[in-house]
Fold these 2 entries.
Entry 1:
Amino acid sequence: RPYAASSSSSSSEEDDDDDDEDEDGMGHMLSVKWLLHDAPLPPLTELAFVVLDDLLLAKPSSVLRKSLLDSGLGDDVMDDGMEDGMIQNTFAVGLKGIKNADDAGKAERVIMDALNGVARDGFDMDDVRASLNSVEFHLREFNTGSYPRSVVIFLEVMSKWNYDQDPRAALLFEDTLAALKSEIDADGSRIFSDLVRTYLVNNSHRVVLEFYPSSTLESEQLDEEKKRLRSIRSNLSPSELKNIDDAAQSLAELQERDDPPEAVASIPSLSLDDLDREGVEHPISIRGPDDDNNDDSTTGGGMTLVTHAVPSSSGVAYVDFGLDASGVSPDDAALLPFLARMMTETGTSTMSALELDRTVGMHTGGIDAVPLVIPVRPSDVDDDDYDDAAVTAGTRLRTMMFVRGKCTRDKSSRLLALIRDVLFDADFAGSKRKAVQILGEMQSDLRTDVPGGGNSYALRRIAGRYSVGGYLREIMHGIGQVETIKGLLDAAENDWPALLERLENMRRAILGGNKGNAVLNLTGDRGVLDAIERDVRDFATDEIFSGSPGPPVDFRSEDHPWSNPALSSMKTSSPLRDEGVVVPTKVNYVGLGGQLYTLGERIPGSASVASRYLQNGYLWERVRVRNGAYGASSSFD
């Protein structure tokens, strides 16, 4: 049998009985983790496990994720999945936000039943094709985001080299991928069901861990620590106590002492002469809706078309399509992140949520939707002087709902059709259960993210007190979302027709906006951009994007319609006062911020240099090195 253990986790809520429901707290959590092997796996098995990980957890339609969420036992899946950075790989899955203690055991049975099912019956081949495509897309794209690609390559190589294995094996995949495809063509999903049976179902080298909420854990730990320290102190002689004081004083003096010049000089560093003052500029083409070469007979189709040609995109096209969201009621602005997920996760009139997820997986590298708040420089502000910038009222904004996706050049028509479908045809009406599930996941994510990233939430909270854009970003993506989601969950469960009407009104406002305020952004190498041009033209000129008549709104010349309501709300919900937010974590996050420049003042570019110097100099030395904080930063907005 697997090893089982339980442990309490600190909760910020009152909890009279650990076995009762923890309605407002973090709830119980259950995690099941396997050690998969004790000898290196063949490359084919390793790659098959990567695809299996996607099949089990990565998508809303994935077997384990869907089974756990459909059980209704908790709010969100703990989808750690496979960890392959060590010589012995592990696989972990769990559920958080479990309301009742008895349901933790039920969640474990759901996990094992789902695994037994696919070990016995195999996987749907559409799911296999979708996961295989997603993994292949990831391998070929090798997108490292803002992280240096060379560093990622180094880390990938070391995952093998550290254990005296061939370092090239971490980077080469073509032959292994071809072999895996051949095996799938011959035996369907058998390779994956065999892996589940061998390494998960019949593998008792696993740990089952339950965390249960406790409102007294923190005080119990503090009492235990004080008791332990008193015991240690009582057994120390006066000379030993003095030695400890002397060592502490020596450490403080060492931390206060500047590093010797020769030590500083030994650190590799760049000088201004090492920097390329020209920089790298990628060609950017912008065709506005009023440009003579951007009518319905050209690619832009009357909307703003932005294209970025990069030296190489590995045959991948990146598409961002944004629609103006300013027509949405200001009272509904905080609902935009929820609307974005409803658009991409509820299915359409012709595809269920499961079928939509499979189709996206089979034909694209992924699709998601995200609302953005973008400040714009007022048209009456002189922006020709690039040495400094004027402080504006912050009431000129663009608010957009972007749907983003990526695909290989031969799949652009499918990607653009899917973007159109999720915008215009998402099935809200038949998705009450899905809405509750999405909101539960969003609530669970916030409960996890705020304790783990409190510095970001604190800074976002501060910014929300000084500008309309900051306030809107706070209520959409900050601590302000906590109460919003709590209210939406209640509405979804108890007054779904009213919430559905709000969602439909928001969608109509976005889709009914002026086409001239829409933005279509394309990125790819020149060969990719040329290959997708016809599909892009068909998409941009589709009559479904007709929108409201008349000229587009110039958001540089007039205040955003949400500005005045936001300014009014800021006075009551975001006053200029100190604030503390209680979260169940042993780590404190402290943020301090304020307004340095007033309306009309000009900000020199050197202010950004001073901010960076403050972070890398004073804050590093004083807060981190000398006072032991994990980190400190400063930002200038």
Entry 2:
Amino acid sequence: SSEEATHRWTVTLGILGIAATMVSGELLKRRGIFRIPEAVIGLLVGVAAGGLSEMFESQTMAEDESFDDEFFMVWLLPPIIFAAGYNMNVPAFFDNLGPTMLLAFGGTVLSAAVVGACVYLAGQLGLAYRLSLLASFFFGSLISATDPVTVLAIFKVIGVRDDIFAVIFGESVLNDAVAIVLARTILSFNTPDADISLLTCLQAATVFCSIFIGSMLIGSLGGTLSALLFKGLGLARVDDKVPLEAALCFAFPWSCYYAAEALELSGIVAILFCGIAMATYARPNLSPHARTLTTELFETLAAIAEAFVFNYLGMAFFTFPILSGGQQSPAGGTVWRLALVTMLACFVGRLHAFLLLPLTNALRMRSARRTARELVAAAESDAQHRATSYLEAAQRSLLSTAHAFVVWFSGLRGGVAFAIAAAAYGDHAFSQCGDEGEPRPCDPAVEISPDLAILQATLLIAVFTIVFFGGAIKDVSLACDVLAKPAAEAAEEASSTSSGGLAATAAPGKGLPRTRSMRARWLHINERYIMPQLTVDGAGGGRAGGRLGDAELPSRCTSNCGLLAAQGHAGWATEMVPTKAREGGALCSTLPADAGAGGEGSPAPGGACARGSDGHPPKEHALAIASRLLESDDDSGRDASRGGRRSLGGSDDGLSVEHQRV
């Protein structure tokens, strides 16, 4: 039939739109054009697709292109959120957990309150469309969901500081989940007999916390069970089981998602923490090829979903009654003033970054001073020097006002906010017009309902922030000096702090007294009790891509040549050694601990790990071997598992080592 043919052409158009978005975005990146991010290309492609349905006046095409909030929440958002958790830099995330949690929880609640109050007052003063008190705070909660996909994509290309990336990345992922749960909680009051009082607000806050904690536990449990399964099956020790490993990796996150939804919790929170738990405990139990495959596969699915989301937003201009003049033209016009007032309120609401980040700086320095006092109390020969180095490293890790401005500027709005608004519009959550005391059904022929006004304003704000803020983020990053330091400078800093700075306390038990901080206690419990039970080698996982952190290096590295984790050389190695297939562990495990006569772990003089006068490998050797590891292909992991011999750099400098099972 003609309708079936139209439907198939619409699907074809959507697939080609995703491809066009990704290709155009890649071409722009290659040319260094960051003022037109991929998200903007996606919006334009979506507008073009929606314009075709408008041109041909095809109702079938318009219906197929319409934004389906359930499809978004079930099929588009979960892959994005899970990939964020599975591929995140877990150590950096937990190192900056304080500011991340404050921004995601406290910041979102503050922003929702500020935006809701401003929108309500503006309506009462006649400055914008009038919303009820409940609708205003519902609008404030959903519009507080930031969507920095564009910003993070640019951050990866231009290379910003790890701590800034981790804070914005972690805030954005948790912020979406918090906004969804907060909006659902506010909607629970949208009943005729709802009693809004201090007691009911406290009950709602309790429900909010229970939903978040319960969802987090379900996701963490799913990730833990996956680690136990992979450890028990031992698929990493069997050849040609990579497809099975990858298939099993899909089972747990979506099981957690639907289990949480079935229990009326948050599937988004569950799948996020499932990704974090799997990255930490399950991924180390996978074979090297399976780690690479799952990482890239989940990134691919997330990239497709992100492109589809922006196409979806562009189509919404024609598939929803947003603008006047089309098939879906709203009878009451477009709420431009409400969008403007709300956008200004969002700018004010995001100012919490300038309040919360200094608070985290104060807490971080307080903890650092306490640790320094404990170092001095240890009464070791170099205790004072180590304490001073630790305080200096802590001082360098603080987030300045310029960094807070980047966090404020990165609060784009996007798919999550629009999905919540579209769900409320589809459910007619706020379809009553008139005064709050005398509500009446809205007349769609002459006026706009509150839920449609919220939908219009949300889309207009999302498009504005994506286009203008997303396009200007590179210039802001350069002006605020948040780019990562050059490799040489970072290596020198890492080398100087490895003996007494933050790197030295990354893992308890490395020559420093265990501090009383919650982070240090958790690291101790995790490394001593949890990791050995859940992972094959007890080393655990960390980050999926980028460089290894000092805390992630295998403990054997210290005794085997001291090549990667030796004092003064950890920075050189961690700057260059990639994590996939855990090549660092492969190198350390294959260097014989009794290779030389200089004592335990001392290699033979003149070999690949020849030591300098300081008792450690000279810098040139560390850089040479690390660079060859970086250049080696991914097949080294499989060759290692089969016990074969592989040369890391050729036969001219004696850098050939025998790989054993990692």
